[in-house]
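We modelled the chain as a single entity of 472 amino acids. Its sequence is:
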Amino acid sequence: MIEAVLPKERRPQERINDFGEVVSTYSEEEALKEAKRCFQCSNPPCILGCPVGIDIKRFIYQITQKDYQGAYFTIREKNNFPSICGRICPAEYQCRKACILTKKGLSFASEQAINIHFLERFIGDWGIENRIDVLQNKNEKISKFKVAVVGSGPAGLCCAGELARAGVKVVVFEGLHKLGGVLRYGIPSFRLSPQILDREIDYLAKLGVEFVTNCIIGKTKSLDELFIEGFHKIFLGLGAGVPSFLGIAGENLCNIYSANEFLTRINLMCAYNFPQFHTPINVGRNIVVIGGGNTAMDAARSALRLQKINGISPNVTVLYRRTEVEMPARRLEIEHAKEEGVNFRFLVQPKEFIGDENGFVKKLICLECKLREPDSSGRRRPVEIEDSEFEVKCDLVIVAIGLLANQILTKVTPQLKTDKYKDVVVDTETMQTSIRNVYAGGDIVGGEGTVIEAMGMAKKAATHIITGLKRE
């Protein structure tokens, strides 16, 4: 069997000194070699593993024929943002895991599985570099209608793109001063270059999408006001922007950040370039990150880079209450973190933060854990071991244990039905909420998920919005 082709990566000793991208896009030679490894299965399971149903078999075959434009259009039939998804999608849990080259029973893709995401990135970047635009498939019957999209994260941008390509007038309302939502503030530039995000947003602008920033729907405007202004339908891509906390003693001490704030300061507000940019951020000598997901990896790797930039010897430790096997983070991100010098300590449960006389965190009391039977997540449940206390020295802590629903809009819109987690309830077939002509998708529906899952919901909502407009 031909060995898998991996893209070039910057050396760890070099890349930890800045926030530049770590993984390179395939060269043409690399892409062709990897594409030719595909068996072109008669019933390709990889397509079923893609949340938006990209015709993976077809676009990989088109690469082997050097029909890059054809491959680009094939991907864009289902995925509005191939350059983004090719960089950040957890392919090892989705399309690559479904590849026939992954052995049955594995929880994530084997090394020999086709690197579908890297091929998608190659085609996405080729399309950007060659300025290939996907033409609108306008329907004159619906071009008179206006749709408001609330939020410019992956769900909002995807829905806006689908609607604009059909000829619908779309206005996207974003609460922050820059567009992109979690793609902008939550993902470090060493994983997703902001220039790539800007190019994808520019494409939407070319389709006629209008963007309004610094406008918080639920504060600046209500849903009723949007309807009064002439919008026929509304899509809510509010996201999950409220951080979860541990709820233990001492959590209000200084120098304890939520990962949300920490990454937002760095990614959106350029804190790594202080004082050139006016957003400060504290940098500790002994940094602890609590959590095991992609956000925890992003926070740990960002913290380590801040230490290097500020001339501090790197010392970042990730604490996780299960083992590495149960970590939900991408395997690639875990390996990159290890290569860069991030330390890991598993089967650890934080118990209490201890501060100094000035109110700054100085250490963390923890308990050791052991794993028992699986819980509702399907992973083995961590149980604290009695009398196993130990101390971890730290002068900066980042809590990365998940996000909760953004309630700015839902709190002031009682007719918008939510569940016990404060997520918006939708009809899963149409993505319509309890309010007629109001749809929702992404992390505000069903909790924190992946970018491609958010896009899948947005595409479903856009399809039903378009169908509804054609009937009016």
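As a brief sanity check on the tokenised model: The first helix runs from residue 12 to 15. DSSP finds 16 helices and 16 strands in the chain.
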